[in-house]
Amino acid sequence: MALYGGIEAGGTKFVCAAATGPGDIRAQVRIPTTTPKETLGAAIGFFRSLGLPLDAVGISCFGPLDLRDASPTWGYITTTPKPGWQNVDVAQRIAHALATPVAIDTDVNGAALAEQRWGAGQGLDDLVYLTVGTGIGGGAIVNGAPVHGLMHPEMGHMRIPHDRAIDPFDGNCPFHGDCLEGLASGHSLQERWGVPAEELPADHVAWEIEARHLAHGIVGITTVLSPQRVIVGGSVMKREQLFPLIRREALALLNGYLQVSAILDGIDTYIAPPALGDQAGVLGAIALAEAALNQIA
Amino acid sequence: MALYGGIEAGGTKFVCAAATGPGDIRAQVRIPTTTPKETLGAAIGFFRSLGLPLDAVGISCFGPLDLRDASPTWGYITTTPKPGWQNVDVAQRIAHALATPVAIDTDVNGAALAEQRWGAGQGLDDLVYLTVGTGIGGGAIVNGAPVHGLMHPEMGHMRIPHDRAIDPFDGNCPFHGDCLEGLASGHSLQERWGVPAEELPADHVAWEIEARHLAHGIVGITTVLSPQRVIVGGSVMKREQLFPLIRREALALLNGYLQVSAILDGIDTYIAPPALGDQAGVLGAIALAEAALNQIA
């Protein structure tokens, strides 16, 4: 049985684990994200300290990332706003230090892969994982493999219709103002309403507006990518009342155009919560390692 | 050298061809689209009359289509508004009549494949072909293969921001009003301005508005799918002045967020006209046949 290393590389913490799969995590550690040298050094130190040979390491990483196979800067974080982390080699450094095959992908592609492998997307070849947290991002699996393309999807920056009669907020994306992230991220909710999203009462009008924005995003994803399921996770989605509201709005927006029973009769599973909870991040990294090893084998 | 049959199955005409590739079309016929029995019968008759053994037949077809491999109605046109063509078996009937392996896909996926194989997308694994004609549709190649997912993309029905101060037209999509197709298709232009698009003068304000709508669509596609190129064809795009306008608007909408040289320095090739012209449709069908044969082999 193969042993995998997984690194969930986030902007505030790195979670590292060694596991054969989701039911068998042998060791796990949480490292604060400080400088690349310190944080990557601690991650490498953790895996070395285990004294176990790893068959592959997967890295589920904040971005943007260079994922072009042939690129000399493959596996680098590129233009992130996070101070000190621009143009930082992550994957090549880990591969060299641990002398192991390494796979790297966006955190959302990792989560999509983990949900497909062990969670809410089992048996599906085409799915999207959308996270609605401080920011908004989306990962996609098409024909069984993660989507990279030119770079990787940046679904949070989709432009959506913005009815200012319903929501006069200008949006707070520094690049686009009222893109999906600018209108519907946790950061946007906090700026708009003056309190963190988790403090907004359940009957606050914010949730109807939020559901409408997110439904617009999901309808955009559905028309462009035609996934078999859209899994929606992230801290904002812990407010589970959002799901029925989003589903209702998405059906209204589609207005019967897509005559498929998975949507018309199955909207409760078409727009679904994730199944892996807080472990999705590190399991995404493990799933990437597993996929990398399968590709080599 | 394999000989392929290709059927470009459109709402007004079927174009059938036998070819080994784009430079070697051995026979071609154009059949008006009347009833399924008559039109499909004529197509089958054409191929039989050649007296040549075909290695595979590809069908690039108007939709929506059932493309699920395991479905008993695989290869059927499903809920089209075209009278007489709902729930019509196309692919299975052709396969049976010609005793040949058959591939079927949407007309836009076929065009995407043809442009990738022989046209404006050569060497790319991830691209989108968007057609702006009477309606608007998009096909996508991801990791080298056409995207189907739940059904197939329906990019024309993406919702886009609609600034009524610039464009007060309500849109004319019977399902969604002001979706991309409702605002920017040839049919919409005609309803909006009272003349066919090709009669609008080059300096008409319609083109600035059209470019803005199409840029919104392309930016939506870019954020969701991250293609390496978006090829934009169809009758409306014969107005080539649209390309520089669309490129300018797309760059303005992205506002430097995607720091990739293919967009920042290469927008003229990122948003590109097709290279195959009026042959794209039937060559798409030939490309589908070729892909089907390669998959078998």
Explain how this protein is built.
Two copies of one chain form a homodimer. With 297 residues, chain A is an alpha/beta fold. In chain A, 36% of the residues lie in helices and 21% in strands. Chain A has two domains: 4-107 and 278-296, Nucleotidyltransferase, domain 5 (2-Layer Sandwich); 120-274, ATPase, nucleotide binding domain (Nucleotidyltransferase, domain 5). In chain A, helix 3 packs across helix 10 and helix 6 (205-225) packs across helix 7. The radius of gyration of chain A is 19 Å and the shape is globular. The model of chain A has no long low-confidence stretch (mean pLDDT 96). At the A-B interface, strand 9 and helix 6 of A face strand 9 and helix 6 of B.
List the topology elements.
The structure is a homodimer of 297-residue chains.
Chain A: E1 4-9, E2 13-21, E3 24-32, H1 36-50, E4 56-61, E5 76-77, E6 88-89, H2 91-98, E7 102-106, H3 107-118, E8 127-132, E9 136-142, E10 145-146, H4 180-184, H5 186-193, H6 205-225, E11 229-233, H7 242-254, H8 261-264, H9 267-270, E12 271-272, H10 280-296
Parallel strand pairs in A: 1-4, 4-7, 8-11, 11-12
Antiparallel strand pairs in A: 1-2, 2-3, 5-6, 8-9, 9-10
